[in-house]
Sequence to fold (378 residues):
Amino acid sequence: MILAKSYRAKKQLALLAVAFFASILCWFGYTFSRSDSLMLTFYAACIYVVTKPVKSNDFFKPLILALLSVACILSKQNGITVPIVIIVWLFIKNARKTAIYYSIFFLILFVGVLSIYNSIYPHLFENTVMALRNRIDFPWFYTYIFKKMMDSIWALPLYFSFILAIRQWIKPATEDDRPLGAIFILQAVFSLAFSLKLGSGIGYFNESVFIGFIILTRKLANTQSINAFAFGKKAIAWTLPLIILFSIHTLLQGYLLFIKDQEEKKVMYNEQKEIRDYLRPKLQGRYVLNMTNPNTHFFKTLLYREIAVPNIDIVDCCTMPDEIFDYSSLKKDISNGKINFLITDDKTNVKELWNISLSHFSIDTVIHGYTIYKYKQE
Fold:
């Protein structure tokens, strides 16, 4: 809304753009429950500040941009693209003095905040760089990004924005057309590059879609080159059936994937809470390994202090086979009893894990269909 207004867009167009963008975020789903939402908030603020006209001797603008850029990077690792986007915009706008000040402020703030953070929690690099150094996986990209993109209507604004961005670069109508087109194309390339790695999701295109809607809104609001009202009537007439189908599809997905399973999830939560209450008094400083599905079960939340590997799927798929980290201590803890209990279900293989024999674990009890194994002293 702020960005649409900053380009003097008509109120109706601004509202429409915000509504469409919100619909896309709803389609992404997990954006609201992850750091993506925080990153997108700081990103939107960055774009708003950088696109405002530069005043002479404006000391605060580069400082604010530097603060927001650091906030983006610390919110999510792909925020590293923000300084590049900002510098490209400033250089195309011939605001080189502002770009230099911004670069200086950014480096000072980034190094300072990074030093303070590392003195408190010295694992930032491992968690945000090394742990996410996943290999490129084209089947994953096709299944979880490209296919979802093509199956939904939200790919259309991204496509139209890309075409308009190229046209704006070649033949700009206003002084902001060329830099806006440039940062959109740059952001889209970054989004595509990041999304190729194993484990990525379509949320990596949040920022590209965000800038894309600014381009589309400005184009519709530019009454000198297009009759916004006439175009709006035609667009609604042609796209309304698609919007209705997309809305039905989204609502059905929401029901089938989430709402329908609420009661079942409540039952599962209460059952796993009983397991938590059974295990916690017995642990006495030792740990539990959840060998069931970590993403659909509640154990890593209920036993957040006691779970040995909260994201065991990430370890299985990437960081252990790719030898990103040294897991010798974890393997040793499985063998020496530091990991004292295993939580399993019917689908779990309890004979070995990561080429480690689990023969020294025996059944302790069964609660609500979950089999609890306990380490037995030789």
Q: What stands out?
A: The two ends are 66 Å apart (CA to CA). The longest helix spans residues 228-257. The CA atoms of residues 64 and 238 lie 42 Å apart.
